[in-house]
UniProtKB/TrEMBL annotation:
<dbReference type="InterPro" id="IPR051798">
    <property type="entry name" value="Class-II_PLP-Dep_Aminotrans"/>
</dbReference>
<protein>
    <recommendedName>
        <fullName>cysteine-S-conjugate beta-lyase</fullName>
        <ecNumber>4.4.1.13</ecNumber>
    </recommendedName>
</protein>
<keyword id="KW-0456">Lyase</keyword>
<keyword id="KW-0663">Pyridoxal phosphate</keyword>
<keyword id="KW-0808">Transferase</keyword>
<dbReference type="InterPro" id="IPR015424">
    <property type="entry name" value="PyrdxlP-dep_Trfase"/>
</dbReference>
<dbReference type="Pfam" id="PF00155">
    <property type="entry name" value="Aminotran_1_2"/>
</dbReference>
<keyword id="KW-0032">Aminotransferase</keyword>
<dbReference type="GO" id="GO:0008483">
    <property type="term" value="F:transaminase activity"/>
</dbReference>
<dbReference type="InterPro" id="IPR015421">
    <property type="entry name" value="PyrdxlP-dep_Trfase_major"/>
</dbReference>
<dbReference type="InterPro" id="IPR004839">
    <property type="entry name" value="Aminotransferase_I/II_large"/>
</dbReference>
<dbReference type="InterPro" id="IPR027619">
    <property type="entry name" value="C-S_lyase_PatB-like"/>
</dbReference>
<feature type="domain" description="Aminotransferase class I/classII large">
    <location>
        <begin position="41"/>
        <end position="382"/>
    </location>
</feature>
<dbReference type="InterPro" id="IPR015422">
    <property type="entry name" value="PyrdxlP-dep_Trfase_small"/>
</dbReference>
<comment type="similarity">
    <text>Belongs to the class-II pyridoxal-phosphate-dependent aminotransferase family. MalY/PatB cystathionine beta-lyase subfamily.</text>
</comment>
Length: 390
């Protein structure tokens, strides 16, 4: 299998390609889907073989989460992230948006303030609002195409009604890999304002050379008593449809409360999610991820250099993730115009920056987790749609 192999996903009920026309009006027959954050690659062959073995066995009854599953998660965190996880700290949810919802539900009450560093992954605000909690937007500073945080400003914003802060690490969108000092500053902020800290590290495996992801408990060991870690194999191995993610809770008291909530909702194990996770978190999986990263690295180089050659467009240099964050403010066009050019002229479906909160207004997010030929096609289309700026 090569990452270059084109795979037609139309008609598989996939959100990315099959919902492009109903949502964006970008025609299915010649549109390019570069929105939803999954990749157009097959999962690793050894994972698919294991799932085939399951279906060949044929009995798809109830399962329990097993020691091999827990061991595989612990092995991955130790080997890839230098992080020791206690087996009893691991809970499995139906994904990480569900994990965020569970954390809100377990530890906060309606009306509480939940801090986000915006622009940030849009589902956080959606879940917070739907749960009747308040989104508190702390806007990041765009320092010459690189997001940074401004804690003096955020301190002044706090009212005392805030209960939780959600960090995206590495950050989506913009692709920052937070440094030790930055993570320390987030932890200190959480401490200063007595907030629980949710660290969503779903993109932790997709980090480019020259940057190192540091898990929050390693960066700030003293705050584990207020820390809720979110991780998943879904982005890394392109198995998001199996809806399996981990909420890892180092503190026993917080863990006890979460366990009760899980039991109250009767969240039950998913047999395919368990099998795929324990198979992916292995030396073979690690080798596959190394190959994937080299491929994505070339995609991002190609895309970033082509975008920066179009006057007025600027892609934030990605340190992690396959989600390119493109700033259109240099074109002088209003949002409706640059969006129309991308969607209707170039026929590319992308995520709108406004959905990521304050600071995202002049941006569109392009998913580069696809075959090189599609990246080249996207570049050609954008060159034509913005050709008058050359
Ligand atoms: C930061 C972040 N968290 C969570 C998710 C989605 O997680 P899940 O599919 O496990 O709900 C995404 C998907 O893009 C994401 O970027």
């Amino acid at each position: 299998m090569s990452f270059d192999d084109l795979i037609d996903r139309h008609g598989t009920f996939c959100s990315k390609w099959d919902m492009m026309e109903p949502i964006y009006g970008v025609p299915a027959q010649d549109g390019l889907a570069m929105w939803v954050a999954d990749m157009d690659f097959r999962a690793p062959e050894h994972v698919l073989a294991k799932l085939r073995e399951m279906t060949d066995h044929g009995v798809l009854g109830y399962v329990d989460y097993s020691k091999p599953y827990t061991d595989a998660i612990r092995w991955w965190m130790r080997n890839r992230h230098d992080w020791d996880v206690a087996p009893e700290a691991i809970f499995t949810t139906t994904g990480l948006v569900n994990g965020v919802g569970m954390c809100l539900d377990t530890y906060t009450k309606p009306g509480d303030g939940i801090v986000l560093f915006t622009p940030v992954y849009h589902a956080f605000a959606k879940v917070i609002r739907n749960a009747g909690r308040q989104v508190v937007e702390c806007q990041m500073v765009n320092n010459d195409g690189r997001y940074e945080m401004d804690f003096a400003a955020y301190d002044a914003q706090m009212t005392g009604n805030e209960r939780m802060v959600i960090l995206c690490s590495p950050h989506n969108p913009g692709g920052r890999v937070w440094t030790q000092e930055e993570l320390r500053a987030v932890a200190d902020f959480a401490k200063r304002h007595d907030l629980l800290l949710v660290s969503d590290e779903i993109h932790h495996d997709l980090v480019y050379p020259g940057h190192t992801h540091i898990p929050m408990p390693n960066a700030a060991p003293d705050i584990v008593d207020r820390l809720l870690m979110l991780t998943a194999p879904s982005k890394t191995f392109n198995i998001a449809g199996l809806h399996t993610g981990q909420v890892i809770i180092p503190d026993p008291e917080l863990r006890g409360r979460f366990a009760k909530r899980m039991a109250a909702l009767s969240l039950a194990p998913n047999s395919t999610g368990q099998m795929a996770t324990l198979t992916a978190y292995s030396p073979e999986g690690a080798e596959w991820v190394d190959g994937l990263l080299a491929y994505l690295d070339e995609n991002r180089r190609l895309f970033e250099s082509a975008i920066s050659a179009i006057p007025g467009l600027r892609a934030m240099p990605l340190e992690a993730t396959y989600l390119a964050w493109v700033d259109f403010s240099g074109t002088g066009m209003d949002r409706a115009e640059f969006t129309e050019r991308v969607e209707q002229q170039a026929r590319i479906a992308v995520n709108h920056g406004t959905s990521f909160g304050t600071g995202g207004e002049n941006f569109l997010r392009f998913n580069l987790g696809t075959q090189r030929a599609r990246i080249e096609d996207a570049i050609d289309r954008l060159n034509r749609a913005f050709g008058d700026l050359q």
